Amino acid sequence: MARGNTKRLITEAAVQVAAQHGISGASMDQIAEAAGVAKGSLYYNFASKDALFEEVIRDGFGRLAEAIDAAREGAEPTAAPRAVAAATLETLRGNLDLAKLMASEVFRTDRPWAGAMELARSSVVVRFSDVLRAARPGAEITETAGAAFFGALAGACLDWLLFRPDQPVDQVLDQVLFGI
């Protein structure tokens, strides 16, 4: 098996195990078993559990950033907030375990990967801020507004997927974007 495929299997297993047991409760043995690889493969691909979860966090926010960029491309500035919000919801819906993990870790500052988390989170927040600035030229839009937009979407997404999965995505978008 190619190393890239092994790394992907390991990171996907890490997300699954952490969603079930929390990062602190997830063991490398459990992750190796879930990935179907030898424990040595974990340490061949990642120096430590911390390095593994740093990669998981970076990858998760990277996928979200790509979805935001793709949704924004070609959208009219006033339609971009809805397009970006829809892409965010769909990306998070595509991997609920990762969404829960990202939500639980985004404000943890005591983790070894806190610096990587801050960079990854900031990258997404800046994208949201830029979308809002383009939609509202002349308005003073700070990164706090981008963080609020992201937070509202992440919270609404988890509420939707965990407690109201039958609610149509357009209804979730209408409620989150009320007034934007």
General description of the model:
The protein is an all-alpha fold and 180 residues long. The protein contains 9 helices and no strands. It starts with a helix and ends with a helix. The mean pLDDT is 91.
Strand content: under 5%
Oligomer: single chain
Number of domains: 2
User: In CATH, what is the homologous superfamily of the largest domain?
Assistant: Tetracycline Repressor, domain 2
Helix content: over 70%
Number of helices: 9
CATH fold naming of the largest domain: Tetracycline Repressor, domain 2
Give the helices and strands as they follow along the chain: HHHHHHHHH
Q: How would you describe the shape?
A: elongated
The CATH level-2 architecture of the largest domain is identified as Orthogonal Bundle
Structural class: mainly alpha
Low-confidence stretches are none
| CA distance, first residue to last residue | 48 Å
Q: How many individual β-strands?
A: 0
The biggest beta sheet, please? none
- CATH structural class of the largest domain: Mainly Alpha
Specify Rg, calculated over alpha carbons: 17 Å
Average of pLDDT: 91
